[in-house]
Amino acid sequence: MTAQRRTRVTSPQTRIALARRHRGGQHLLRVPAPADTERARLVFLAQRRRAVGSMLLLALVLFGLSGLVAFVPALGELRVAQFPLSWLLVGVVAYPVLVTLAMWHVRAAERIERTAGPGGAVPGDPGGAGP
Fold first, then answer.
1. Is 11 within the bounds of a domain?
2. Domain count of the chain?
3. Nearest-angstrom CA–CA distance, 97 and 87
4. Does residue 104 lie within any of the structural domains?
5. What is the pLDDT of residue 119?
6. CB 109 within 8 A of CB 120
7. 38 is in which domain, residue-wise?
8. CA 15, CA 12: separation in Å to the nearest integer?
9. What pTM did the predictor assign?
């Protein structure tokens, strides 16, 4: 009996990943300058403050609508196109509000990054100016 040679089968992505491993440190990023890291830290802090505000608005919308439905039982009795108004508030009205809130948050975070360009001031920076 003759022994057959085994063939190793791998996906192209696996071959690429295995080939990258042998190239040394080409995939490493340069160490940023201290001014860049300080600017990035300030941008991160400003965006985190914005995120906390967005999360508070999100909680207000979700718990506010739920609380409104719970504390005003008449909303369950009112009907719009044969649906209870309470269902429409939670199931239909909430989603456009949430999408609007998400778009507002993303635009605000991008605005923070834009204004924190090289030498630019970071909004919400306690010092009032960028590094």
1. no
2. 1
3. 15
4. yes
5. 56
6. no
7. 32-115
8. 5
9. 0.61
